[in-house]
Task: inverse folding
């Protein structure tokens, strides 16, 4: 038996809420996280039919990519679909959880999965985020260095790319004089002390700060450990928007359009006609990614695949890059599969189903 909170905690370990964009509203939107989870419906968008689907199956958790509550809700009277969903979900004890730009911004997320669908190689995040990393500097007696390091590493601190337990240590001399109220591990009141100490430096993502400081206090032998927390300007290459990678072999524009149509089961593609080159390097972003045009050009990508491109934005691409607008829904539909895989792998005894409701509000008319 698992509480809904167990599933949420796991999802937030993979895609921390701290990685969502400022405008976003990820997390538990409706419901009681302490309930026992009776089953999960995974969808891209929450519409009333999806809530009905959960009710008919007897499942009490909906995990959606898009938050159905974006703006402030001041009255809940059922006057629009958002209010009606809130009412129905609460009446039926259904929790609704959104995992949106925090899932977009991780390596194994929405764009990463799109890159996988196209079989791209040498992939990396197109626009890595700044301001997510800090460094802990602390000073510990050489005799206690290992125990402290292991304690801090156990929080997940010290990871850089494919390397974990990264730290830097240099030996020096620490000095201090305890007063009469102190209870020093080493030394006595009112006597200056000098101890051989290691200066340790460890990088960590900001959202782990509380755990890191707790581990520092738990594993450091001193009554009052000295430490500095330093905000870093480094980009976090594992967190950010879009992906860029390469095709195994270059293709003509026509072959590429046919290739992505088949691989991503597309109905239509809006693309720039000015670009005439071959396609080898591919930038992409699930959902609205027109803001990445400059990054895609700077990365020397031949194409940017995304959605929600406006008419005038197509001009900005000139002939420098092929822009393919494949549709918002189409660029993210594989997210359902991604979430389902993540949840079923970890919670084998909980029923997780993909919603069978087609939630794309846009239709395509064909003659
Ligand atoms: Zn989206």
Result:
């Amino acid at each position: 038996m698992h509480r809904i909170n167990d599933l949420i905690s796991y999802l937030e370990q993979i895609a921390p809420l701290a990685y969502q964009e400022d405008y976003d509203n990820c997390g538990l939107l409706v419901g009681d996280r302490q309930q026992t989870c009776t089953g999960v419906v995974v969808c891209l968008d929450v519409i009333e039919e999806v809530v009905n689907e959960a009710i008919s199956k007897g499942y009490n958790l909906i995990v959606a990519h898009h938050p159905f509550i974006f703006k402030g809700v001041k009255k809940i009277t059922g006057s629009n679909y958002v209010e009606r969903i809130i009412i129905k979900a609460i009446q039926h004890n259904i929790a609704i959880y959104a995992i949106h730009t925090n899932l977009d911004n991780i390596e194994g997320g929405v764009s990463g999965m799109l890159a996988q669908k196209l079989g791209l190689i040498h992939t990396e995040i197109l626009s890595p985020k700044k301001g997510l990393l800090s460094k802990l500097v602390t000073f510990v007696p050489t005799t206690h260095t290992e125990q402290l390091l292991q304690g801090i590493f156990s929080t997940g601190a010290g990871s850089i790319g494919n390397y974990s337990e990264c730290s830097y240590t240099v030996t020096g001399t620490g000095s201090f004089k305890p007063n009469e109220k102190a209870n020093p591990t080493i030394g006595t009141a009112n006597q200056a002390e000098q101890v051989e100490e290691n200066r340790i430096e460890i990088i960590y993502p900001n959202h782990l700060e509380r755990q890191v400081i707790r581990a520092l206090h738990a594993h450091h032998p001193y009554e009052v450990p000295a430490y500095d927390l330093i905000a870093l300007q480094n980009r976090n290459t594992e967190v950010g928007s879009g992906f860029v990678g390469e095709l195994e072999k270059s293709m003509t524009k026509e072959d590429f359009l046919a290739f992505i149509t088949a691989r991503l089961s597309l109905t239509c593609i809006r693309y720039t006609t000015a670009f005439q080159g071959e396609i080898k390097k591919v930038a992409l972003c699930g959902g609205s990614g027109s803001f990445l045009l400059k990054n895609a050009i700077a990365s020397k990508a031949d194409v940017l695949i995304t959605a929600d491109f406006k008419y005038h934005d197509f001009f900005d691409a000139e002939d420098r890059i092929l822009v393919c607008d494949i549709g918002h829904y189409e660029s993210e539909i594989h997210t359902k599969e991604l979430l389902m895989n993540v949840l079923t792998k970890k919670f084998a005894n909980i029923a997780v189903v993909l919603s069978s409701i087609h939630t794309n509000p846009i239709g395509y008319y064909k003659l």
In short: The chain has three domains: 4-102+334-354, 110-128+240-331, 132-232.
